Amino acid sequence: MNKEEFRKLIDKLKGFNWCFISGMAVSIYTKGKRDYGDIDILIHKAEIDKFAEKIKQKVIEKQVKKGDITISDRGVEFNFQGKQIEVVTSFPDDKIQEESVQKMLDNKKEEIFLGEKVYVAPIEELIAQKASMQREKDISDLKLLKNLGLRLDLLEWFLKKWGNEKEALALLHKLGYKLK
Questions:
Q1: Are strands 109-113 and 116-120 parallel, antiparallel or unpaired?
Q2: What is the pLDDT of residues 15-52, one digit of tens each?
Q3: What is the C-alpha to C-alpha distance for residues 21 and 42, in angstroms, rounded to an integer?
Q4: Which residues have a Cβ under 8 Å from the Cβ of 119 and sit 6 or more positions away?
Q5: Is the dihedral of CA 33, 167, 103, 76 positive or negative?
Q6: I need a labelling partner for 111 at 20 to 30 A (CA). Which of 27, 43, 122, 137 fits?
Q7: Whole-Å CA distances, 135 to 9, 66, 110, 140
Q8: Distances 92 to 17, 99, 105, 120 between C-alpha atoms, Å
Q9: Spatial CB neighbours of 147, under 8 Å, sequence gap ≥ 6
C-alpha cells in the first residue's frame, strides 16, 4: 500500500476510537522491518456500526479459532486498495476480557507511519499476546520488538489477562528481554 492509499484508509478511521493491532502494529513499531500482510484494526465496539456505515460495509458476527483460542467478534472485513482489512471489536473470550480492550484503547500509542499519524496498540499488549501464543511468527516478532522500551506494570497486567504468565515470562527471559 502506498502513502496515498494509506492516507485514504486513515481518513476513514478519523473520528473513531481505534488502533492497529497484530502484525500491522509490529510493522509500525519496527519501522517496517516486519512486512504486514493483512491489516488488523481494533475499534471500540460502540462505534463498529457507525464505522461500517461510513465505509458502506455490513457488520459481521463470527467466531475465529486461532490455535486453542476462540474469538467471538462483531467486525468488518473488506478489501481496500488490494489489502485485506479486518476491523475487530474484541479479543479471545477466554483469554482477554472487555476491560482489556478498553485498556488497549486507553493506552494506545501515537506513531507516524507512511507519513500519517496513526494509533497502535500498546507495545506491552502486543508483547504479552505474542509471548502467550508462542507461535513461530510470534517469536520472530518478539525478537524484533525487544529493547523498544515498555512499561513493566502494563506488560504484567496484560500477561495476567492472557493467562499463561509463567510460560510467557520464561520465553521473554530466554529471548533476552530485561524485565526488572
A1: antiparallel
A2: 999 999 999 999 999 998 988 888 999 999 899 999 99
A3: 7
A4: 18, 19, 20, 108, 109, 110, 111
A5: positive
A6: 137
A7: 29, 10, 27, 9
A8: 20, 12, 16, 19
A9: 178
What's the rounded mean pLDDT across residues 144-162? Answer: 91
Would you say 141 and 49 are in contact if contact means Cβ atoms under 8 Å apart? Answer: no
Sheet holding 83-88, edge to edge: 60-66, 69-80, 83-88, 39-43, 18-21, 116-120, 109-113
- Burial (CB count <10 Å: 0-12, 13-18, 19+), residue 47: middle
71 DSSP assignment: E
> What span, in angstroms and rounded, lies between the C-alpha atoms of 25 and 145?
10
- List the one residue out of 90, 70, 87, 67 whose CA is nearest residue 79: 87
Give the global pTM: 0.89
Query: 3-state class of 115 per DSSP?
Result: coil
Q: Please name the residues in contact with 77: beta carbons below 8 A apart, sequence gap of 6 or more.
A: 57, 60, 84, 85, 86, 87
